């Protein structure tokens, strides 16, 4: 069995890719992996380590074909706020605006309800979405890429992550390893100060355009509660800026206003949202959908993009998309 590096060892991208290859290929023990992941998280992962680890995961994934311009919007998880599933709702809204969305996600690792849990409670068969991903993406402009279906190497890692119950570098690797090879993304991370580090990892890997965002309170998405750190990544470079809800003509609201629960609770809230229920959850979805539409090139104005997202909900298109998706993904 391979011996993983000590906690104080910082790896360059090539070393990280090699080490995470060992981990993903089962060449080291579960106890070693747990120790290594916790130690790395405690000292904070570097951009080089994240990029290298993501390359190792990318090299072992099962890809799908995707239309040009396909996007993804997701959070790294592990923020501890247990909010409603914002990025899952955003995926439906953005796809309803004519932007193909390959939603990459998983079951909850350190939260109460992950994207897969909530979509399943809404009626999507998690086995079927894997078989029909390319079909639904082509015909409806949306698919769910259930991590377990596309990252077989993660099979032995998931129980370790669940046992640890805390965020690790695997939270950071997932969004960088979308099986559709998306070139445009909105990625939320749970550490505001970490946005430029993660953006550097994304820039190392390359992207047409991506936003890396984090709410000031440590929310892994754009937050209504206060300010947000945002890294605008294009190609192999990025610039930092601040963004607040008022820029999208949306009201501020505390994080508690979008507190979620178990999969059934979150699914009911998402259904209500799609039927036009107003409130902080809707506004959080509009804010993050606006960011995704900007990244996708549909608009360059926050208010205009939020209005496009609102129209997709109020017209019933987003709700119909979910119904059609459940029917087609059989």
Automatic annotation (TrEMBL):
Binding site for Mg(2+) 1: 87, 221
Sites where the protein binds Mg(2+) 2: 220-221
Catalytic reaction equation(s): N-(5-phospho-beta-D-ribosyl)anthranilate + diphosphate = 5-phospho-alpha-D-ribose 1-diphosphate + anthranilate
Biological-process GO terms, alphabetical: L-tryptophan biosynthetic process
Cofactor remark: Binds 2 magnesium ions per monomer.
Annotated pathway: Amino-acid biosynthesis; L-tryptophan biosynthesis; L-tryptophan from chorismate: step 2/5
Domain Glycosyl transferase family 3 N-terminal: start-end pairs: 10-60
E.C. number: 2.4.2.18
Broad enzyme group: transferase
Keywords on record: Amino-acid biosynthesis, Aromatic amino acid biosynthesis, Glycosyltransferase, Magnesium, Metal-binding, Transferase, Tryptophan biosynthesis
Pfam families registered for this protein in UniProt: Glycos_trans_3N, Glycos_transf_3
Entry binding sites for 5-phospho-alpha-D-ribose 1-diphosphate: 75, 78-79, 83, 85-88, 103-111, 115
Domain called Glycosyl transferase family: residue spans: 70-318
Keyword Ribonucleoprotein among record annotations: no
GO MF term list: anthranilate phosphoribosyltransferase activity; magnesium ion binding
Residues the entry annotates as binding anthranilate 2: 161
Ligand binding (anthranilate 1): 75, 106
Keyword Transit peptide appears in the UniProt entry: no
Cofactor(s) annotated in UniProt: Mg(2+)
Protein family according to the UniProt entry: Belongs to the anthranilate phosphoribosyltransferase family.
Protein's job: Catalyzes the transfer of the phosphoribosyl group of 5-phosphorylribose-1-pyrophosphate (PRPP) to anthranilate to yield N-(5'-phosphoribosyl)-anthranilate (PRA).
Subunit structure: Homodimer.
NCBIfam families named among the record's database cross-references: trpD
Protein name per Swiss-Prot or TrEMBL: Anthranilate phosphoribosyltransferase
Species this chain originates from: Qipengyuania nanhaisediminis
Lineage, uppermost ranks: Bacteria, Pseudomonadati, Pseudomonadota, Alphaproteobacteria, Sphingomonadales
């Amino acid at each position: 069995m391979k011996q993983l590096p000590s906690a104080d060892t910082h790896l360059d991208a090539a070393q990280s890719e090699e080490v995470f290859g060992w981990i993903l290929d089962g060449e080291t023990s579960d106890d070693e992996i747990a120790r290594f992941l916790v130690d790395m998280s405690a000292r904070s992962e570097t951009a080089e380590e994240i990029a290298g680890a993501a390359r190792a995961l990318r090299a072992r994934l099962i890809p799908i074909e995707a239309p040009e311009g396909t996007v993804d919007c997701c959070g790294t998880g592990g923020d501890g706020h247990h909010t409603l599933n914002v990025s899952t709702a955003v995926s439906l809204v953005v796809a309803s605006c004519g932007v193909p969305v390959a939603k990459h996600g998983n079951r909850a690792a350190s939260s109460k309800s992950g994207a897969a849990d909530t979509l399943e409670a809404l009626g999507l068969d998690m086995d079927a979405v894997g078989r029909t991903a390319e079909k639904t993406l082509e015909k409806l402009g949306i698919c769910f890429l259930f991590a377990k279906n596309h990252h077989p190497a993660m099979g032995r890692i998931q129980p370790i992550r669940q046992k640890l119950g805390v965020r690790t570098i695997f939270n950071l690797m997932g969004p960088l390893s979308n099986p559709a090879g998306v070139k445009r993304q909105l990625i939320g991370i749970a550490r505001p100060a970490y946005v430029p580090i993660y953006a550097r990892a994304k820039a190392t890997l390359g992207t047409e355009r991506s936003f890396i965002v984090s709410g000031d309170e440590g929310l892994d998405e754009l937050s209504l509660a206060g300010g947000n750190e945002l890294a605008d990544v294009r190609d192999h470079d990025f610039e930092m800026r601040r963004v607040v809800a008022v820029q999208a003509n949306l009201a501020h609201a505390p994080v508690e206003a979008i507190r979620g629960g178990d999969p059934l609770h979150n699914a009911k809230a998402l259904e209500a949202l799609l039927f036009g229920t107003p409130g902080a959850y809707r506004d959080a979805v509009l804010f993050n959908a606006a960011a995704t539409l900007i990244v996708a090139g549909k608009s360059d104005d926050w208010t205009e993009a939020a209005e496009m997202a609102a129209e997709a909900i109020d017209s019933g298109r987003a709700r119909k998309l979910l119904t059609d998706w459940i029917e087609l993904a059989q």
